[in-house]
Hints:
By secondary structure, the protein is α+β, with helices and mostly antiparallel strands. The chain has a single domain (4-296), classed as Clavaminate synthase-like (Double-stranded beta-helix, 4-Layer Sandwich). Helices cover 16% and strands 28% of the residues. The radius of gyration is 19 Å and the shape is globular.
Amino acid sequence: MALTVKQLDNVGVEVTGFDIRKPVTAELRSELISLWNAHGILLFRNQDIDPKAQIEFSRVFGPLENHPLKATTSDEFPELFTLVNDPVKEKYMTASYKGKNIVSKLDWHMDLHYTGKPNRGAILRSVVVAKEEGKTGFGDLAKAYAALDEKTKTLLEKLEVVYSFNMQRRHMRFVDLEGYEPGAYSPKKPSDMQFPSFPEIAYPAVVTHPVTGQKVLEIVEQMLDRFVAPHKAGLSNDEAIDLMQSLVEHTRKPEFHYFHAWRDGDMILWDNWRAMHCTTGTAPGVARVIHRTTIMGDTMLGRVLEP
Length: 307
């Protein structure tokens, strides 16, 4: 079976030439995994499948893990995580951006990054497509690293970065807060959303991908806080802050991004050890449902900082 691969905007590829509903042969599995490792972001279109078929296909790429937020899973399909604009709950996910109310907008992030053990990857499948907005963005941090100058690459090898878990967006140091106002029901602490409290996590500023060996820039704006002891790398605190801000701006460059406008039957697989993602959100009251399966991460990429 010959797969057809088409480059997406800037990063990632669209893969066609097979039917997910049919059994995946060993040869096809090997080819799909090779494409995933090579490109980090794979788009599959026109896949008319149900949750059970999505779960089985996801296992092609590794063992699955259940999402830690039990409220968004079901007893029938515990491996499935449902992202839904619920009219009852959306008030907790609504904030104002430059005077416009938006539901479920998320800054660039990597899933479970705040635990030090991110999942390896995930698959999103459109079930109910938002009639407007609702895009999902993906950013290739291996490509972002490769584009750095050699002096910066050498400096980053000496540095660690710290991520500090916050529920309030306005307390995140490196997200764009221009025109942002939290909603009246925006959570103020982890327990408001039945989250645990997470300790601070440190990562090498450049992580070597455990499978592909690629260098990945470990700079993601959501919950990013500071460098660990930048003076050990010869930086003053002011220089360290300036460097971190410049790296965040670097990751925001469009040449590292692909923004997906969802259609019926779309599925996207991404490598969470390599690619960050974000969501543009929707207007209040817009119906949208995404089914997600999560591929287990078996490696601690970060370390817990002791108090």
